[in-house]
From TrEMBL:
Database matches in Gene3D superfamilies: Acetylglutamate kinase-like
Binding-site residues for substrate, renumbered to this chain: 65-66, 87, 179
A GO biological process held by the record: L-arginine biosynthetic process via ornithine
Originating organism: Anaerotignum lactatifermentans DSM 14214
EC identifiers of the protein: 2.7.2.8
UniProt-recorded name of the protein: Acetylglutamate kinase
MF terms in GO: acetylglutamate kinase activity; ATP binding
Chain positions of site Transition state stabilizer: 30, 242
């Protein structure tokens, strides 16, 4: 039987081809609020991200925080309402979204990375007018439709050795702020950065044929099938923007979009450093 140190060396050597494949490339990780609930898991995700960045992969972390926003709105006695998986956002709600996403969730993640010995910098779409948006058509209030991404703040952070951590609050650079679904923004940012991969961490195995049946995982989706899946009605709530975002990222040239289970420790490393297909992969 091999001793523990030999086993460690074997594992590290096995990761080498994958590290070489991704070295110097950009990988966008979208971390959903529902997979952020357990502190130990959150730590494991942040340490995976630090590891990826230390082996020379340019990780960009885009985070959600839907449950935290809902919690704060409830405390303030403001009603939460979702339309097609998007939170109806009046002016007051937009302020709470900015406060929670950019003020609390973002800084908690940046702080955790620092605590674990990594270097991160927190940004939101207002910083440097990075995520420019206008009102999304339809009755959603101040939900943003992205008009432009200026990747400069993200690229500068990476070039200076920081992991950029992005809260998806958008702006029209005229004083209005917009609530942007984190999956939607992550896909746009991945496209704008010409990212190699986008990995979406959520609280379910991936896209399911039947959300109540753990064994109904759909491992591969061709982007042309997405509209049909939405029409069939098997996708609801937050999964609608998530699936559409994976489709958009692939159409924007991102080589691989995957949705994986953020409840499993080190699922990011399994996804990146092995050929084991976990979750749902979206292909052109
Ligand atoms: N067909 C489906 N497959 C998987 N999840 C689905 C499906 N339809 C709806 N969902 C729901 O989407 C949820 C994930 O979206 P969301 O709650 O917005 O997560 P996140 O906070 O990670 O963005 C799942 O927990 C599940 O309840
Ligand atoms: C417009 C819209 O719905 N915005 C989202 C932004 C946060 C988010 O997307 O968080 P998750 O990734 O945890 O779902 C919201 O208000 O909940």
């Amino acid at each position: 039987m091999k001793d523990i140190n030999t086993m460690k060396a074997t594992v590290l050597t096995a990761a080498l081809p994958y590290i070489q494949k991704y070295y110097g490339k950009t990988v966008v990780i979208k971390y959903g609020g529902n997979a952020m609930i357990h502190p130990d898991l959150k730590k494991a995700v942040m340490s995976d991200i630090i590891l990826l960045s230390l082996v020379g992969i340019h990780v960009v972390l885009i985070h959600g925080g839907g449950p935290e926003i809902s919690g704060m709105l409830k405390k303030l006695d403001i009603e939460s309402r979702f339309v097609n998986g998007l939170r109806y956002t009046d002016k007051e709600t937009a302020e709470v979204v900015q406060m929670v996403l950019a003020g609390k969730t973002n800084k908690d993640l940046v702080g955790l990375i620092g605590q674990l010995g990594g270097k991160a910098v927190g940004l939101c779409g207002i910083d440097g007018c990075m995520i420019q948006a206008k009102k999304l058509e339809g009755d959603y209030g101040y939900v943003g439709d992205i008009t432009k991404i200026d990747t400069t703040p993200i690229v500068n952070a990476i070039d200076s050795g920081y992991i950029p951590v992005v809260a998806t609050v958008g702006t029209d650079c005229k004083g209005n702020i917009y609530n942007i679904n984190a999956d939607t923004a992550a896909a746009e940012i991945a496209g704008a950065l010409h990212a190699e991969n986008i990995i979406t961490l959520t609280d379910i195995r991936g896209l399911m044929e039947d959300v109540n049946d753990e064994d109904s995982l759909i491992p591969v989706v061709h982007v042309d099938e997405v509209a049909n899946l939405v029409e069939k009605g098997i996708i609801s709530g937050g999964m609608i923007p998530k699936v559409q975002s994976c489709e958009n990222a692939v159409r924007a040239g991102v080589k691989k979009a995957v949705m994986i289970d953020g409840r499993i420790e080190h699922s990011i490393l399994v996804e990146m450093f092995s050929d084991e297909g976990i979750g749902t992969m979206f292909l052109p």
